[in-house]
């Protein structure tokens, strides 16, 4: 009962974590929020891909191009001024560590419903690209923090400008009691 609380804003359970999340900051005052619907990770090809090279040195330029693309996306997120980056799709190990090194919190695979709730409460707009991010699409709140409640961790956005959103976190007994009736017939 003592762990239950009311948030003037949005709260949701922490999403899947990648390597590096431990080093991320867990609390910000008046952060800007960047809400995305894109992946921020290096992906291996799902289909067979074939590239014919006439010179083995060309291979490195292809690998470098892939790395440059992801680093360009991550750099644009940081340059937006956002201290919290949320995405409906995956944010991988590389991005998580990149953000942690720059004092930015990130969470990937955020449920679509939760992302929309954060957008509505914070005044942010969900982006499908990291190109040309302007201040008007960034959300905000008075306090963002990641908080442990029992065995769960929650991302808490309080003091949201819309003022119409509240979340109640109820912590109850975790043990379930099963009973059976025995018949002596």
Account of the 3D structure:
This protein has one domain (5-42, 61-169): GroEL. Mean pLDDT is 85; it is low at 175-185. By secondary structure, the chain is α+β, with helices and mostly antiparallel strands. The chain is built from 3 helices and 10 strands; from the N terminus they run ββββαβαβαββββ. Helices cover 23% and strands 23% of the residues. It is elongated and about 65 Å long. α2 (93-101) links the parallel β5 (84-87) and β6. The longest helix has 23 residues, at 57-79. The strands form 3 sheets. The protein has a 4-stranded antiparallel beta sheet with strand order 2-9-8-3, covered by helices on one side. It is found in: Cytoplasm. One of its GO terms (molecular function) is ATP-dependent protein folding chaperone.
**Briefly, what CATH class?**
Alpha Beta
Number of helices: 3
Structural class: alpha+beta
Low-confidence stretches: 175-185
Q: What is the fourth-level CATH superfamily?
A: GroEL
- The mean pLDDT is 85
How many structural domains in the coordinates? Answer: 1
How much of the sequence lies in strands comes to 15-25%
* Gross morphology: elongated
Give the topology, please.
Blueprint lengths: L4 E3 L1 E5 L13 E3 L2 E5 L20 H23 L4 E4 L5 H9 L3 E3 L4 H11 L16 E2 L2 E7 L2 E7 L8 E3 L16
Parallel strand pairs: 4-5, 5-6
Antiparallel strand pairs: 1-10, 2-9, 3-8, 4-7, 8-9
Task: Summarize this structure briefly.
The protein is of the alpha+beta class and 185 residues long. It has helices at 57-79, 93-101, 112-122, and strands at 5-7, 9-13, 27-29, 32-36, 84-87, 105-107, 139-140, 143-149, 152-158, 167-169.
